Amino acid sequence: MFKAAPILLFTVLLAGQSFGQFGSLINKAKNKINQRIDRRVDQGMDKALDKAEGKSTATSGDSPGSEPAPTLASFSKYDFIPGEKVLYAEDFAEQSIGELPAGWNSSGSGEVVTLDKFAGRWLRLHKSVSYLTANTQSFGQDYTIEFDLVLQLKNNGWMYPQFLISLLASRDLSPDDNSLLKDYRQFAAATATIAPFENNGSRALFETFKEKASIFKGDLINIGQLQNWYGQAAHVAIQVQKQRFRCWVGELKVFDVPKAMPAADTMNQLRLEVGSTNYPEEGYGVYIGNIRVATGLPDTRHRLVEDGKFSTNGICFDPNSATIRPESYGVLKEIATVLKENPSIRIKVVGHTSSDGDDAANLDLSKKRAAAVKDLLGSEWKIDSDRIGTDGKGETEPIADNKTKEGRAQNRRVEFIKL
Fold first, then answer.
1. Where are the beta strands (DSSP E) in 170-283?
2. Are residues 288 and 350 part of one domain?
3. Rounded mean pLDDT of 58-62?
4. Nearest Cα residue to 367 out of 382, 353, 346, 383
5. Over the stretch 228-270, which tens digit does the pLDDT of each residue have?
6. Which domain holds residue 35?
7. How many domains does the chain have?
8. Other C-beta atoms lying within 10 Å of the C-beta of residue 113
């Protein structure tokens, strides 16, 4: 488009002009052309920057990257269900701003920060640096890992940094041993590599290792939808069932590999890494928050139909709110399926909170959250409201120690009781 315009412009200008004016006309034409090109480039860069910063840029001709974050309805095929018992939780609320979280290890730098657009505290990850969490417990054979991820990416022409999510076994080493920062594949490991790009070009790769050797390497997968999450908080969810590995980013299932996880070894650490990039530190941002590792496979049908009670931490809400988050869809769909398959069952939905905050406010919030679950079961899955009662207990019936982060995460739950 820009190559044809100068030729046409020169032709029009030269018609009727003397030879002596030729040089000055060329200079004027070049300046005019460059100004117009610069304006168009600036407009394109402004859109890219607005998108990276999460600003609304939607117009009739906008690119897919400017779409807003998906709603609950877009998670209709989302079948992730978190583990039954919380092993490790970290929302950085008790960590010092500007410092690496207590108990974490790093090959470089990283600091807890706050973000204008997003509630709570976040850990900023830096390029060419790897991180080990403060977890000390074995994940077991069946487990889930969740966290929120914010990619603040501004397209200046360079390659974005890759983001690596690794699960590893430390065997006799401490889970935060320095050697695992670099040589994390020395025993057993699994790595999901996410490579962000523009123009729907983002890619992902999954690979597993045993004694440093690669034992499985999947195909390079296109995840062009990733750019819709730039400047947004994307929920990352991993589900491992023995050798099966599944991973979602937002509502998108990126991996579902039946037989890839290393056998025999038990994973006990989450390792995060940001790759290298030519972007300066102020030119990009990678942040994580709300980490949760849980173990076990919840048996919704058996617990609710036969035992008469089912409790879950998998229904998530916005902070201090009864607004249900989209990543709750898988759990709610499972509950709805059980109710549809057993039309004679009536239930009571009971909300519970941790001890954070005011007692009376927690009680009121728990009641509102239970009511929100009932309403959604009715509106989304057409479960008759007469079959569902609601209640809230606030912080009065803890099932774990509210003095620990893991205990508080376990206490924030929704309970379904057969009537």
1. 188-195, 203-210, 213-217, 221-222, 233-241, 244-249, 252-257, 269-274
2. no
3. 28
4. 353
5. 999 999 999 999 999 999 999 999 999 999 999 998 899 999 9
6. 4-52
7. 3
8. 15
